[in-house]
Specification:
507 residues; 13 strands; binds 6-O-phosphono-beta-D-fructofuranose; alpha/beta; 5-stranded parallel sheet
Protein backbone atom coordinates (compact mmCIF):
# COMPACT_ATOMS: atom_id res chain seq x y z
CA UNK A 1 0.00 0.00 0.00
CA UNK A 2 1.55 3.36 -0.92
CA UNK A 3 1.86 5.98 1.78
CA UNK A 4 -0.64 8.66 0.71
CA UNK A 5 1.95 11.43 0.84
CA UNK A 6 4.16 9.52 -1.57
CA UNK A 7 1.54 9.30 -4.32
CA UNK A 8 1.77 11.63 -7.32
CA UNK A 9 -1.81 12.68 -6.62
CA UNK A 10 -0.89 13.91 -3.14
CA UNK A 11 1.95 15.97 -4.53
CA UNK A 12 -0.31 17.38 -7.24
CA UNK A 13 -2.86 18.29 -4.57
CA UNK A 14 -0.20 20.12 -2.58
CA UNK A 15 0.37 22.33 -5.66
CA UNK A 16 -3.39 22.68 -6.10
CA UNK A 17 -3.63 23.90 -2.53
CA UNK A 18 -1.01 26.59 -3.17
CA UNK A 19 -3.10 27.74 -6.15
CA UNK A 20 -6.46 27.53 -4.41
CA UNK A 21 -5.31 29.41 -1.31
CA UNK A 22 -5.21 32.51 -3.53
CA UNK A 23 -8.66 31.97 -5.05
CA UNK A 24 -11.91 33.24 -3.57
CA UNK A 25 -15.21 31.41 -3.97
CA UNK A 26 -16.54 34.67 -5.46
CA UNK A 27 -14.06 34.20 -8.33
CA UNK A 28 -14.95 30.54 -8.74
CA UNK A 29 -18.65 31.41 -9.07
CA UNK A 30 -17.91 34.35 -11.39
CA UNK A 31 -15.65 32.28 -13.67
CA UNK A 32 -17.98 29.29 -13.75
CA UNK A 33 -21.62 30.28 -13.24
CA UNK A 34 -22.67 26.72 -14.15
CA UNK A 35 -20.96 25.24 -11.11
CA UNK A 36 -24.12 25.41 -8.96
CA UNK A 37 -25.82 23.04 -11.36
CA UNK A 38 -22.79 20.90 -12.14
CA UNK A 39 -21.44 20.37 -8.63
CA UNK A 40 -24.30 18.20 -7.48
CA UNK A 41 -24.48 14.49 -6.72
CA UNK A 42 -27.66 12.58 -6.08
CA UNK A 43 -28.16 9.21 -4.46
CA UNK A 44 -30.95 7.33 -2.70
CA UNK A 45 -33.11 10.44 -2.34
CA UNK A 46 -30.26 12.72 -1.16
CA UNK A 47 -28.78 15.62 -3.09
CA UNK A 48 -25.32 16.88 -2.26
CA UNK A 49 -24.69 20.42 -3.50
CA UNK A 50 -20.92 20.90 -3.30
CA UNK A 51 -20.68 24.07 -5.36
CA UNK A 52 -19.63 26.15 -2.34
CA UNK A 53 -16.33 24.37 -1.95
CA UNK A 54 -12.91 25.80 -2.70
CA UNK A 55 -12.34 23.46 -5.62
CA UNK A 56 -12.64 23.53 -9.38
CA UNK A 57 -12.58 20.76 -11.97
CA UNK A 58 -8.79 20.46 -11.73
CA UNK A 59 -8.86 20.09 -7.95
CA UNK A 60 -11.65 17.54 -8.11
CA UNK A 61 -9.74 15.59 -10.74
CA UNK A 62 -6.64 15.41 -8.53
CA UNK A 63 -8.76 14.34 -5.54
CA UNK A 64 -10.24 11.49 -7.57
CA UNK A 65 -6.67 10.59 -8.61
CA UNK A 66 -5.83 10.29 -4.92
CA UNK A 67 -8.80 8.00 -4.36
CA UNK A 68 -7.55 5.82 -7.21
CA UNK A 69 -3.96 5.84 -5.98
CA UNK A 70 -5.10 4.71 -2.52
CA UNK A 71 -7.25 1.97 -4.13
CA UNK A 72 -10.56 3.10 -2.66
CA UNK A 73 -12.56 0.90 -5.04
CA UNK A 74 -10.53 -2.22 -4.25
CA UNK A 75 -10.87 -1.64 -0.48
CA UNK A 76 -14.60 -1.05 -0.87
CA UNK A 77 -14.93 -4.29 -2.81
CA UNK A 78 -12.95 -6.12 -0.13
CA UNK A 79 -15.30 -4.80 2.55
CA UNK A 80 -18.40 -5.94 0.65
CA UNK A 81 -16.76 -9.32 -0.02
CA UNK A 82 -16.32 -9.96 3.71
CA UNK A 83 -12.50 -9.75 3.80
CA UNK A 84 -11.05 -9.23 7.27
CA UNK A 85 -10.19 -5.60 6.64
CA UNK A 86 -10.28 -4.83 10.38
CA UNK A 87 -6.82 -6.33 10.68
CA UNK A 88 -5.96 -5.42 14.28
CA UNK A 89 -9.04 -7.34 15.46
CA UNK A 90 -8.96 -9.84 12.56
CA UNK A 91 -12.59 -9.15 11.68
CA UNK A 92 -14.67 -8.65 8.58
CA UNK A 93 -16.70 -5.42 8.32
CA UNK A 94 -20.15 -6.21 6.99
CA UNK A 95 -22.71 -3.66 8.14
CA UNK A 96 -23.75 -3.55 4.46
CA UNK A 97 -24.97 -7.16 4.85
CA UNK A 98 -27.33 -6.14 7.66
CA UNK A 99 -29.39 -3.97 5.32
CA UNK A 100 -29.15 -6.19 2.27
CA UNK A 101 -32.63 -7.64 2.73
CA UNK A 102 -32.70 -9.38 -0.66
CA UNK A 103 -29.10 -10.64 -0.45
CA UNK A 104 -28.07 -8.65 -3.52
CA UNK A 105 -24.43 -8.58 -2.40
CA UNK A 106 -24.24 -12.22 -1.29
CA UNK A 107 -21.97 -11.28 1.62
CA UNK A 108 -19.98 -14.07 3.24
CA UNK A 109 -17.21 -14.43 5.81
CA UNK A 110 -14.63 -17.13 5.09
CA UNK A 111 -16.96 -18.48 2.42
CA UNK A 112 -19.94 -18.79 4.80
CA UNK A 113 -22.96 -16.72 3.73
CA UNK A 114 -24.31 -14.38 6.42
CA UNK A 115 -27.73 -13.59 4.96
CA UNK A 116 -29.58 -16.51 6.58
CA UNK A 117 -28.47 -15.55 10.10
CA UNK A 118 -29.28 -11.90 9.48
CA UNK A 119 -32.80 -12.81 8.36
CA UNK A 120 -33.30 -15.10 11.35
CA UNK A 121 -32.54 -12.28 13.80
CA UNK A 122 -34.72 -9.85 11.83
CA UNK A 123 -37.59 -12.35 12.07
CA UNK A 124 -36.97 -12.67 15.83
CA UNK A 125 -37.04 -8.87 16.15
CA UNK A 126 -40.28 -8.68 14.17
CA UNK A 127 -42.02 -11.37 16.23
CA UNK A 128 -40.87 -9.93 19.55
CA UNK A 129 -41.67 -6.32 18.70
CA UNK A 130 -45.11 -7.21 17.41
CA UNK A 131 -45.83 -9.13 20.61
CA UNK A 132 -44.74 -6.19 22.77
CA UNK A 133 -46.52 -3.59 20.66
CA UNK A 134 -49.81 -5.53 20.61
CA UNK A 135 -49.65 -6.43 24.29
CA UNK A 136 -49.30 -10.17 23.62
CA UNK A 137 -45.97 -9.90 25.47
CA UNK A 138 -47.04 -8.53 28.84
CA UNK A 139 -45.23 -7.74 32.07
CA UNK A 140 -45.19 -10.26 34.92
CA UNK A 141 -48.48 -9.00 36.35
CA UNK A 142 -50.19 -9.21 32.96
CA UNK A 143 -50.11 -5.50 32.12
CA UNK A 144 -48.91 -4.44 28.65
CA UNK A 145 -45.48 -2.84 28.24
CA UNK A 146 -45.73 0.96 28.31
CA UNK A 147 -42.03 1.89 28.49
CA UNK A 148 -38.82 0.54 27.01
CA UNK A 149 -35.48 1.47 28.61
CA UNK A 150 -32.42 0.92 26.43
CA UNK A 151 -29.30 0.50 28.55
CA UNK A 152 -26.14 0.74 26.46
CA UNK A 153 -23.37 3.19 25.61
CA UNK A 154 -21.44 4.42 22.55
CA UNK A 155 -22.55 2.46 19.50
CA UNK A 156 -25.08 0.60 21.65
CA UNK A 157 -26.82 3.87 22.43
CA UNK A 158 -26.11 6.72 20.03
CA UNK A 159 -27.51 5.14 16.85
CA UNK A 160 -30.86 3.92 18.20
CA UNK A 161 -31.24 7.08 20.29
CA UNK A 162 -30.58 9.32 17.28
CA UNK A 163 -32.94 7.33 15.02
CA UNK A 164 -35.76 7.27 17.59
CA UNK A 165 -35.40 11.04 17.99
CA UNK A 166 -35.23 11.67 14.24
CA UNK A 167 -38.31 9.59 13.51
CA UNK A 168 -40.29 10.65 16.60
CA UNK A 169 -43.22 11.88 14.46
CA UNK A 170 -43.72 8.20 13.46
CA UNK A 171 -43.46 6.85 17.01
CA UNK A 172 -46.43 4.58 17.69
CA UNK A 173 -45.05 2.05 20.18
CA UNK A 174 -44.16 2.14 23.88
CA UNK A 175 -42.30 5.18 25.18
CA UNK A 176 -38.52 4.78 24.81
CA UNK A 177 -35.84 5.94 27.22
CA UNK A 178 -32.08 5.72 26.84
CA UNK A 179 -29.64 5.35 29.69
CA UNK A 180 -25.94 5.39 28.83
CA UNK A 181 -23.92 7.35 31.39
CA UNK A 182 -22.70 5.57 34.52
CA UNK A 183 -23.59 8.76 36.41
CA UNK A 184 -26.35 7.40 38.64
CA UNK A 185 -28.43 10.48 37.94
CA UNK A 186 -29.15 9.16 34.43
CA UNK A 187 -30.80 5.92 35.49
CA UNK A 188 -32.38 7.45 38.59
CA UNK A 189 -34.28 9.96 36.48
CA UNK A 190 -35.59 7.23 34.18
CA UNK A 191 -36.52 4.81 36.97
CA UNK A 192 -38.47 7.57 38.70
CA UNK A 193 -40.55 7.99 35.55
CA UNK A 194 -41.43 4.34 34.84
CA UNK A 195 -43.44 1.55 36.45
CA UNK A 196 -41.71 -1.81 37.11
CA UNK A 197 -44.84 -3.72 36.10
CA UNK A 198 -44.93 -2.21 32.61
CA UNK A 199 -41.27 -1.54 31.80
CA UNK A 200 -39.07 -3.57 29.49
CA UNK A 201 -35.30 -3.17 29.83
CA UNK A 202 -33.29 -3.87 26.69
CA UNK A 203 -29.63 -4.30 27.58
CA UNK A 204 -27.52 -3.42 24.55
CA UNK A 205 -23.89 -4.42 24.63
CA UNK A 206 -21.86 -6.09 21.92
CA UNK A 207 -19.32 -7.39 24.44
CA UNK A 208 -21.60 -7.48 27.50
CA UNK A 209 -18.56 -6.46 29.53
CA UNK A 210 -18.87 -2.66 29.33
CA UNK A 211 -18.66 -1.26 32.86
CA UNK A 212 -21.19 1.54 32.44
CA UNK A 213 -23.80 -0.70 30.83
CA UNK A 214 -23.45 -3.54 33.32
CA UNK A 215 -23.53 -1.13 36.28
CA UNK A 216 -26.74 0.44 34.97
CA UNK A 217 -28.25 -2.95 34.12
CA UNK A 218 -27.57 -4.26 37.63
CA UNK A 219 -29.13 -1.16 39.16
CA UNK A 220 -32.20 -1.61 36.95
CA UNK A 221 -32.48 -5.26 37.99
CA UNK A 222 -32.11 -4.37 41.71
CA UNK A 223 -34.82 -1.71 41.33
CA UNK A 224 -37.07 -4.19 39.54
CA UNK A 225 -36.62 -6.91 42.19
CA UNK A 226 -37.08 -4.36 45.00
CA UNK A 227 -40.56 -3.66 43.58
CA UNK A 228 -41.62 -7.14 44.73
CA UNK A 229 -41.04 -9.05 41.49
CA UNK A 230 -39.30 -12.40 41.82
CA UNK A 231 -36.35 -13.73 39.80
CA UNK A 232 -38.66 -15.58 37.41
CA UNK A 233 -40.25 -12.24 36.42
CA UNK A 234 -36.92 -11.01 35.04
CA UNK A 235 -37.57 -12.98 31.85
CA UNK A 236 -40.60 -10.75 31.07
CA UNK A 237 -38.77 -7.50 31.71
CA UNK A 238 -35.13 -7.94 30.60
CA UNK A 239 -33.87 -8.83 27.14
CA UNK A 240 -30.40 -8.38 25.66
CA UNK A 241 -28.73 -7.60 22.35
CA UNK A 242 -25.22 -8.95 22.29
CA UNK A 243 -22.60 -11.19 20.73
CA UNK A 244 -21.77 -12.71 24.14
CA UNK A 245 -24.32 -15.40 25.08
CA UNK A 246 -22.43 -16.59 28.17
CA UNK A 247 -22.26 -13.16 29.76
CA UNK A 248 -25.95 -12.52 28.97
CA UNK A 249 -26.89 -15.79 30.70
CA UNK A 250 -24.60 -14.99 33.64
CA UNK A 251 -26.46 -11.71 34.11
CA UNK A 252 -29.69 -13.70 34.46
CA UNK A 253 -31.27 -13.05 31.05
CA UNK A 254 -32.70 -16.12 29.36
CA UNK A 255 -30.64 -16.67 26.13
CA UNK A 256 -34.05 -17.18 24.46
CA UNK A 257 -34.52 -13.47 25.06
CA UNK A 258 -31.21 -12.54 23.51
CA UNK A 259 -30.98 -10.96 20.07
CA UNK A 260 -27.62 -11.79 18.64
CA UNK A 261 -25.28 -10.13 16.24
CA UNK A 262 -21.78 -10.85 15.09
CA UNK A 263 -18.19 -9.73 15.52
CA UNK A 264 -18.26 -8.36 11.95
CA UNK A 265 -20.64 -5.61 13.11
CA UNK A 266 -18.66 -2.72 14.61
CA UNK A 267 -20.28 -1.02 17.62
CA UNK A 268 -20.65 2.34 15.86
CA UNK A 269 -22.07 0.56 12.78
CA UNK A 270 -24.55 -1.54 14.76
CA UNK A 271 -27.86 0.31 14.64
CA UNK A 272 -28.68 -1.90 11.65
CA UNK A 273 -28.33 -5.06 13.76
CA UNK A 274 -30.18 -6.32 16.84
CA UNK A 275 -28.95 -3.11 18.50
CA UNK A 276 -31.78 -1.49 16.51
CA UNK A 277 -34.38 -3.26 18.69
CA UNK A 278 -35.53 -0.09 20.53
CA UNK A 279 -36.14 1.50 17.13
CA UNK A 280 -38.31 -1.46 16.15
CA UNK A 281 -40.22 -1.35 19.44
CA UNK A 282 -40.88 2.37 19.03
CA UNK A 283 -41.62 2.53 15.30
CA UNK A 284 -42.50 -0.98 14.19
CA UNK A 285 -40.57 -3.45 12.05
CA UNK A 286 -41.86 -2.11 8.73
CA UNK A 287 -40.36 1.30 9.41
CA UNK A 288 -37.12 -0.28 10.58
CA UNK A 289 -36.95 -2.23 7.33
CA UNK A 290 -37.52 1.02 5.43
CA UNK A 291 -34.49 2.43 7.29
CA UNK A 292 -32.48 -0.63 6.21
CA UNK A 293 -33.68 -0.25 2.62
CA UNK A 294 -32.67 3.40 2.55
CA UNK A 295 -29.19 2.48 3.74
CA UNK A 296 -29.04 -0.32 1.17
CA UNK A 297 -29.89 2.10 -1.63
CA UNK A 298 -26.87 4.17 -0.55
CA UNK A 299 -24.75 1.00 -0.33
CA UNK A 300 -25.62 0.25 -3.95
CA UNK A 301 -24.83 3.77 -5.03
CA UNK A 302 -21.48 3.62 -3.24
CA UNK A 303 -20.68 0.29 -4.88
CA UNK A 304 -21.83 1.08 -8.41
CA UNK A 305 -21.25 4.77 -9.07
CA UNK A 306 -18.06 6.18 -10.60
CA UNK A 307 -15.89 7.94 -8.05
CA UNK A 308 -16.43 11.43 -9.48
CA UNK A 309 -20.22 11.16 -9.08
CA UNK A 310 -20.23 9.05 -5.95
CA UNK A 311 -21.88 11.04 -3.16
CA UNK A 312 -20.06 9.61 -0.12
CA UNK A 313 -16.77 9.54 -2.05
CA UNK A 314 -17.15 13.24 -2.88
CA UNK A 315 -17.92 14.04 0.77
CA UNK A 316 -14.79 12.14 1.79
CA UNK A 317 -12.54 13.76 -0.81
CA UNK A 318 -13.69 17.27 0.08
CA UNK A 319 -13.05 16.53 3.76
CA UNK A 320 -9.55 15.26 2.98
CA UNK A 321 -8.89 18.30 0.81
CA UNK A 322 -9.48 20.64 3.74
CA UNK A 323 -7.96 18.45 6.43
CA UNK A 324 -4.76 17.55 4.58
CA UNK A 325 -4.15 20.36 2.13
CA UNK A 326 -5.76 23.54 3.48
CA UNK A 327 -5.21 22.62 7.16
CA UNK A 328 -8.81 23.05 8.26
CA UNK A 329 -8.82 20.49 11.01
CA UNK A 330 -12.41 20.55 12.21
CA UNK A 331 -15.65 19.77 10.45
CA UNK A 332 -19.11 20.96 11.53
CA UNK A 333 -22.41 19.20 10.87
CA UNK A 334 -25.42 21.51 11.16
CA UNK A 335 -28.82 19.96 10.45
CA UNK A 336 -31.55 22.55 10.00
CA UNK A 337 -33.92 20.00 11.41
CA UNK A 338 -34.91 19.66 15.04
CA UNK A 339 -35.38 15.92 14.54
CA UNK A 340 -31.71 15.54 13.62
CA UNK A 341 -30.44 17.30 16.73
CA UNK A 342 -28.61 14.16 17.86
CA UNK A 343 -26.96 13.56 14.50
CA UNK A 344 -23.79 15.56 15.34
CA UNK A 345 -23.14 13.42 18.47
CA UNK A 346 -23.80 10.23 16.52
CA UNK A 347 -21.40 11.35 13.79
CA UNK A 348 -18.77 12.29 16.34
CA UNK A 349 -18.50 8.67 17.39
CA UNK A 350 -18.80 7.35 13.85
CA UNK A 351 -16.06 9.60 12.51
CA UNK A 352 -13.73 10.23 15.45
CA UNK A 353 -13.70 6.68 16.82
CA UNK A 354 -13.17 5.36 13.29
CA UNK A 355 -10.49 7.70 11.98
CA UNK A 356 -8.92 9.20 15.10
CA UNK A 357 -5.83 7.07 14.48
CA UNK A 358 -2.10 7.73 14.46
CA UNK A 359 -0.68 4.61 12.83
CA UNK A 360 -1.30 3.06 9.43
CA UNK A 361 -2.86 -0.35 8.91
CA UNK A 362 0.70 -1.73 9.08
CA UNK A 363 1.40 0.03 12.35
CA UNK A 364 3.69 2.73 10.93
CA UNK A 365 3.26 6.25 12.38
CA UNK A 366 1.32 8.49 10.00
CA UNK A 367 2.90 11.71 8.79
CA UNK A 368 -0.36 13.32 7.66
CA UNK A 369 -3.53 14.47 9.37
CA UNK A 370 -6.15 11.75 9.91
CA UNK A 371 -9.65 12.19 11.33
CA UNK A 372 -10.78 15.79 11.89
CA UNK A 373 -12.57 17.03 14.98
CA UNK A 374 -16.26 16.63 14.17
CA UNK A 375 -18.75 18.81 15.95
CA UNK A 376 -21.96 20.67 15.36
CA UNK A 377 -25.42 21.55 16.49
CA UNK A 378 -28.85 22.20 15.12
CA UNK A 379 -29.89 25.26 13.12
CA UNK A 380 -31.17 27.82 13.88
CA UNK A 381 -30.09 27.42 17.55
CA UNK A 382 -26.45 27.10 16.50
CA UNK A 383 -26.58 30.48 14.73
CA UNK A 384 -27.11 32.13 18.09
CA UNK A 385 -24.41 30.06 19.76
CA UNK A 386 -21.26 29.42 17.72
CA UNK A 387 -21.82 30.80 14.21
CA UNK A 388 -19.91 33.94 15.14
CA UNK A 389 -16.73 31.87 14.98
CA UNK A 390 -17.77 30.22 11.72
CA UNK A 391 -18.15 33.63 10.09
CA UNK A 392 -15.36 35.67 11.63
CA UNK A 393 -13.12 33.37 13.65
CA UNK A 394 -9.51 32.81 12.64
CA UNK A 395 -10.07 29.12 11.95
CA UNK A 396 -12.01 28.01 8.90
CA UNK A 397 -14.48 25.18 9.53
CA UNK A 398 -16.09 23.44 6.56
CA UNK A 399 -19.78 22.85 7.26
CA UNK A 400 -22.36 20.27 6.21
CA UNK A 401 -25.78 21.89 6.17
CA UNK A 402 -28.61 19.35 6.13
CA UNK A 403 -32.21 20.26 5.35
CA UNK A 404 -35.52 18.68 4.26
CA UNK A 405 -37.65 20.27 1.53
CA UNK A 406 -40.89 19.32 3.31
CA UNK A 407 -41.35 19.18 7.09
CA UNK A 408 -43.34 16.63 9.09
CA UNK A 409 -45.32 19.41 10.80
CA UNK A 410 -47.97 21.70 9.37
CA UNK A 411 -46.36 25.05 10.21
CA UNK A 412 -45.36 26.07 6.69
CA UNK A 413 -44.23 29.55 7.72
CA UNK A 414 -41.76 28.09 10.23
CA UNK A 415 -40.26 25.88 7.57
CA UNK A 416 -39.88 28.78 5.15
CA UNK A 417 -37.98 30.73 7.80
CA UNK A 418 -35.86 27.71 8.72
CA UNK A 419 -34.84 27.05 5.11
CA UNK A 420 -34.18 30.71 4.42
CA UNK A 421 -31.84 30.80 7.41
CA UNK A 422 -30.01 27.71 6.23
CA UNK A 423 -29.51 29.12 2.73
CA UNK A 424 -28.53 32.52 4.10
CA UNK A 425 -25.83 31.07 6.34
CA UNK A 426 -24.30 29.06 3.50
CA UNK A 427 -24.39 32.14 1.26
CA UNK A 428 -22.90 34.45 3.89
CA UNK A 429 -20.11 31.98 4.59
CA UNK A 430 -18.87 31.80 0.99
CA UNK A 431 -19.71 35.24 -0.23
CA UNK A 432 -18.74 37.35 2.76
CA UNK A 433 -19.18 41.12 2.80
CA UNK A 434 -16.98 44.15 2.72
CA UNK A 435 -17.04 46.30 5.82
CA UNK A 436 -18.61 49.76 5.74
CA UNK A 437 -15.93 52.45 5.95
CA UNK A 438 -14.30 52.54 9.41
CA UNK A 439 -16.14 49.46 10.72
CA UNK A 440 -13.72 46.55 10.31
CA UNK A 441 -15.63 44.46 12.87
CA UNK A 442 -18.43 44.27 10.32
CA UNK A 443 -16.25 42.68 7.61
CA UNK A 444 -16.91 39.11 6.55
CA UNK A 445 -14.03 37.59 4.61
CA UNK A 446 -16.20 34.84 3.15
CA UNK A 447 -14.52 32.01 1.20
CA UNK A 448 -15.74 29.61 3.88
CA UNK A 449 -16.86 26.31 2.39
CA UNK A 450 -19.99 24.29 2.98
CA UNK A 451 -22.00 21.42 1.53
CA UNK A 452 -25.76 21.35 1.37
CA UNK A 453 -27.29 17.91 1.83
CA UNK A 454 -30.99 17.97 1.11
CA UNK A 455 -33.88 15.58 0.61
CA UNK A 456 -37.61 15.75 0.09
CA UNK A 457 -38.65 14.65 3.58
CA UNK A 458 -37.04 12.98 6.56
CA UNK A 459 -38.55 9.51 6.70
CA UNK A 460 -37.04 6.17 7.68
CA UNK A 461 -35.74 5.51 4.18
CA UNK A 462 -34.05 8.90 3.81
CA UNK A 463 -32.53 8.69 7.26
CA UNK A 464 -31.09 5.27 6.43
CA UNK A 465 -29.52 6.68 3.27
CA UNK A 466 -28.16 9.71 5.13
CA UNK A 467 -26.45 7.66 7.83
CA UNK A 468 -25.06 5.19 5.30
CA UNK A 469 -23.64 8.09 3.28
CA UNK A 470 -21.68 9.26 6.32
CA UNK A 471 -20.53 5.70 7.07
CA UNK A 472 -19.11 5.37 3.57
CA UNK A 473 -17.57 8.82 3.74
CA UNK A 474 -15.72 7.76 6.88
CA UNK A 475 -14.68 4.50 5.22
CA UNK A 476 -13.25 6.29 2.18
CA UNK A 477 -11.32 8.72 4.35
CA UNK A 478 -9.87 5.82 6.33
CA UNK A 479 -8.62 4.34 3.05
CA UNK A 480 -7.17 7.68 1.92
CA UNK A 481 -5.28 7.93 5.22
CA UNK A 482 -4.34 4.25 5.30
CA UNK A 483 -5.78 3.71 8.78
CA UNK A 484 -7.96 0.92 10.15
CA UNK A 485 -11.33 2.66 10.61
CA UNK A 486 -12.84 -0.29 12.44
CA UNK A 487 -10.86 -0.71 15.65
CA UNK A 488 -10.84 1.62 18.69
CA UNK A 489 -7.79 0.79 20.80
CA UNK A 490 -7.62 4.40 21.93
CA UNK A 491 -10.48 3.93 24.39
CA UNK A 492 -8.90 0.91 26.10
CA UNK A 493 -6.29 2.62 28.26
CA UNK A 494 -8.74 4.83 30.13
CA UNK A 495 -11.04 1.85 30.72
CA UNK A 496 -8.17 -0.21 32.15
CA UNK A 497 -7.02 2.68 34.36
CA UNK A 498 -10.53 3.25 35.73
CA UNK A 499 -10.70 -0.46 36.59
CA UNK A 500 -7.31 -0.33 38.32
CA UNK A 501 -8.25 2.79 40.29
CA UNK A 502 -11.49 1.18 41.44
CA UNK A 503 -9.56 -1.87 42.62
CA UNK A 504 -7.30 0.42 44.64
CA UNK A 505 -10.40 1.88 46.27
CA UNK A 506 -10.61 5.15 44.33
CA UNK A 507 -13.84 7.05 43.83
O1 LIG B 1 -16.16 3.23 23.65
C1 LIG B 1 -15.66 2.05 23.15
C2 LIG B 1 -16.72 1.10 22.73
O2 LIG B 1 -16.10 -0.11 22.49
C3 LIG B 1 -17.49 1.56 21.47
O3 LIG B 1 -16.83 1.29 20.30
C4 LIG B 1 -18.75 0.78 21.64
O4 LIG B 1 -19.75 1.25 20.78
C5 LIG B 1 -19.02 1.00 23.10
O5 LIG B 1 -17.74 0.93 23.70
C6 LIG B 1 -19.97 0.02 23.74
O6 LIG B 1 -19.51 -1.30 23.69
P1 LIG B 1 -20.47 -2.51 23.97
O7 LIG B 1 -21.55 -2.52 22.98
O8 LIG B 1 -19.59 -3.73 23.87
O9 LIG B 1 -21.01 -2.36 25.38
Amino acid sequence: MPRPTETKAWQALASEAARMREVHLRDLFADDPGRSERYKATAAGLTLDYSRHRVDDATLGRLVDLARAMEVEAWRDRMYAGARINTSENRAVLHVALRDLDDAFGCAVDGVAVHGEVRTVLAQMRAFSEAVRTGAWAGHTGKPISDVVNIGIGGSDLGPRMVCTALAPHHDGPRTHFVSNVDGQAITEVLEAVDPETTLFVIASKTFTTQETLTNAHSARDWFLASGADDAAIARHFVAMSTNTEAVAAFGIDPENMFRFWDWVGGRYSLWSAIGLPIVLALGMDRYEALLRGAHAMDRHFLETPLDQNLPVLMALLGAWYNNFLDFSTHAVIPYDHRLRLLPSFLQQLDMESNGKRVTRDGEPVAWATGPVVWGGVGTDAQHAFFQLLHQGTQVTPVDFIVAETPAHGLASHHRILRANCEAQAEALWRGREAPQGEPHRAFGGNRPSSLLSFERLDAQTLGALVAAYEHKVFVQGVLWDVNSFDQWGVELGKAMAGALLEKGAG
